[in-house]
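Protocol step 4 of 6: structure prediction from sequence.
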Amino acid sequence: MIRLTFFIFSLGAITASAQKYTSANIFAHNDYVQPDPFHRAYGHGAGYIEADIFLQGSDLLVAHSTEEINKDKTLEKLYLEPLQKKIIQNKGTAYPNPTQTLMLMIDLKSEGVATMKALVEKLKNYPQLLSCKTLNITISGSMPDTSLWKNYPDFIYFDGRPGIVYTKDQLDRIIMISTSFGSYSKWDGKNKLPKVEEDKVKILIEDAHAKGKKMRFWATPDIENAWKVLTDLKMDMIVTDNVPGLAAFIKNE
């Protein structure tokens, strides 16, 4: 029931076509490399915050590559603990506005099954996160095989991919469909998006929506002209490394 409630909130915003873009459409990519991980993206009201993790011993360390691993940068310290504090302050919701949802996307960089086992055990120490009706925890990256998804608690969702045929039960565990923008377009964000490439993008968005899912493109151009084009395309979320800049752009639109 907890996750169903989140899904109902999210489904209402499945496309941006029926509403003005807000900070809830911001996807904070690689948030942990920013000067103030979690807090800056949260302070701007981002609807999606991403953290990449490696399993090292019993610790889950936040980094994009093995060269970046720092034993002090744990998932708990950077994300789980501050997020739980916010939920307690908000009396059980992710944001002070009880209708605003937040997705914590956890991208697995180390082997999926072992990392998932450690992650689930860590999350069980944060009951406020697991009972929060406006927080969703979604797994991406080196995900376990879809046949194993049913073995994980219902507070875990997964990141789908286009072109894969999922069973109904597997599709129920997917919160969004994601793919690389560069696989469909070589556009650099300047001038117009070529019509042929625009059509490819629109087809992917429509297909995801037909499944009742949002569509995410990672590695989209991250400049103001690109944000304008992407919002005109009614993308469900805009992925950015510049949350303050995108927040200001959306506010002024």
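Step 5 (inspection) to follow. The CA atoms of residues 42 and 169 lie 32 Å apart.
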